[in-house]
C-alpha cells in the first residue's frame, strides 16, 4: 500500500500587525504577543493612513505575498534574521492565527482546520510541560488524552516513541525547569516534540527547535527529525536561526525570509548558485545560510535585476538531486501508512467527558502531591497554625470577655485562611498555558479541565481543614457538641475552597503572578473591610452596603457565630443566679439569625464557589476558543 503523505502549499500569505497600542493588563483574550489584523474597511483605512505618512509605526507588514511548498518525507527549513516573520508564518501554517489574505492547501485541497489539527503537530519555541511529571508520564497522559486505544496499545506506543526519541535512559526522570532539577534542555525539547508526535501526525511544524541548545544537541534534534521525515513520510516544517554546516546538509529545501518577503525558496545548491550569479563569493569556513543571511541587503537589491534565464538555470540546476532524494525517501519507507486528512482522521475528541475528567484529575493529583510548596509546606503550615492559635486562645471562658475573644478569633481565622492562598497562583498560571496548548489541538474539552480542577482539590483541602480545625477547636474550648465541631470543620473546608476558587478565577483572568497577587489581595481586603466585623452593617454607608452582601467574609463569619452561640445554652453574663445575657440574645442584638440561618449561610458559600468556578470556566473558554477570540479582536 502506497503512503499518501501531506503536501503543504501556501499561496499569497499576507499578515499585518498593529503596534504602539497600549495593552491593558487584564486583556483576557490575548493568546499571542501581537494583535491580529483587522478586516475589511478598517484595514483599508489603516493602510491608507500609513501610506499618507500619518503614523508610520502604526502598521507593520510581517508577511508579504509569501508562497512555499513542503513535501512528504522532507524537511523545509524557514530561515532569516530576527523579525523576518518566521514564527508568524509557522503559526499561520499551524492554524493558530489568521492571515490577512492568502490560502493554504493540503494535498492540493483547501485546508480543513479542525481536521488538520488532528493530523499535525505544532511545537512552540518554549517547552510548555509539567516540570513535576516524568518523561514517561508526560507522554502517557498525552497519549491517553489524544488517542482512543486500548491500554496495552497506548503503553506500547509510548514505549516505542521514547525509544525513537532516544529518551530510554531518562524515561523515569522528571521534566524539571529553571527551579526544579530535571532532564537536560535537549532532552526536554525532545519530550516537547514527542508530545506532538504521540498521535503520529503527517505534518510536524516546529518553531526554532534548536533554540537555546548547544551545537551537538541541536544537530541531534535535526538528525532525529530527518530520520522521522524519511522513515515515516512526515512533512516537517521548521524555523531555525543560525544552523551549523552539518545541520544545513540535512535540510531538503530552504525558505529564506527577510522583512516578510521571500528571497529564496529551493535547495541549498540552488541558493549557492543564486549567490554565485549575483557575484557573491562564499568565504571560507562559513556555511551558505549564514552567508546568505549576512548578505540579505545585497540579495534583496539584486533579486529584482536577476535575468529570467538565470532564474531558470537555478531552478533546473538541482532537479536531478531533488528527484533522487525524493525517490530515496520513497524506497526507504517500505511499510506505509495512509495519511489522508479527509477520510482517516475523525474529528471530535478521543475520550468521553467522564474519561477526560478522570485522566485530568489523576494528572492534577500527581502534580499537587509532588509540589512541596503546595502539599508539604501547606500541610505543615495548617497544622502548626492550628496549634499556635489554639495555644494563644487556650481554654476561653464562657463570659462576655471570652465571647469577645471568640469573635476576634473567628475574624482572624477568616482573614488568615482567605488571604494565604496566593501560593497556588503560579501553579494555576502554568496550568493555563498548558491548557491553552492542549485544547488548541483538540486533546480535551475546557469543561473537563474545569471540573477536574474543581474535584482534585476537594480531598486535599479537606485534609488541610481537618489538620487546622482539630487542635484549634478543642484547645480553645469552643462549643463542645460534636455536631458543632463537624459544622465548624465544614465551614473551614468551604472557606479554603472559596479561597481556592477565587485564586483559580484570578489566574484565568490575569497575565502574570504580580497582577494576580495584587488582585487577590485587593479582593480579600475589601471583603474583610465590609464583613461586618470592623464596621458593623448599620454603620456602613448606603452606597457601600452592596459590598457587605457580596463579601466572602460575611457568611462564614455569621456561620461561626451561630455555630458557637446558638443553641449552646451558654450564659455570657450572670448576676445573682440570673442570666442577663445569653448567646442567643447577643446574636439577636447584633442582627444575626439563629438556627434557620445555618443552612442559608452554607448555601450562599456554595453559590460563591460555583460562581467563581463558572467565571473562571467562561474566561478559559474564551481564551481557548479560536472563533470567539477572533470575533472579539475583529470587533475591536
UniProtKB/TrEMBL annotation:
Residues that span the membrane, as ranges: 375-396, 408-429, 450-476, 482-506, 513-535, 602-620
GO annotation, cellular component aspect: membrane
Keyword Membrane among record annotations: yes
Residue span(s) of domain ABC transporter: 45-284
Principal subcellular localization: membrane
Keywords for the protein's UniProt record, in alphabetical order: ATP-binding, Membrane, Nucleotide-binding, Transmembrane, Transmembrane helix, Transport
Topology term for the membrane: Multi-pass membrane protein
Pfam families to which the protein is assigned, alphabetical: ABC2_membrane, ABC_tran
Keyword Flavoprotein among record annotations: no
MF terms (GO), sorted A to Z: ABC-type transporter activity; ATP binding; ATP hydrolysis activity
Localization (cell): Membrane
Protein name: ABC transporter domain-containing protein
Species this chain originates from: Anisodus acutangulus
UniProt lineage: Eukaryota, Viridiplantae, Streptophyta, Embryophyta, Tracheophyta
